[in-house]
Amino acid sequence: MVITNYVFDTNSIISAHLLPVSMSRSAYNKALKQGILLYSKDTLSELAQVFSRQKFDKLYSG
Fold this sequence. Notes:
By secondary structure, the chain is an alpha+beta fold.
């Protein structure tokens, strides 16, 4: 069986997490079900920087 590797850019990952009904979310969900998601240190660092911006505070505060 061949396992497919998937790579998403930072913008696509953010869109997938913020927009539950979107092409990005559909693609992300498909990748999770059918293969392996690959992340670089740079992408994870950029995700952390973006999600730490003040405009995202309301999404993650109680």
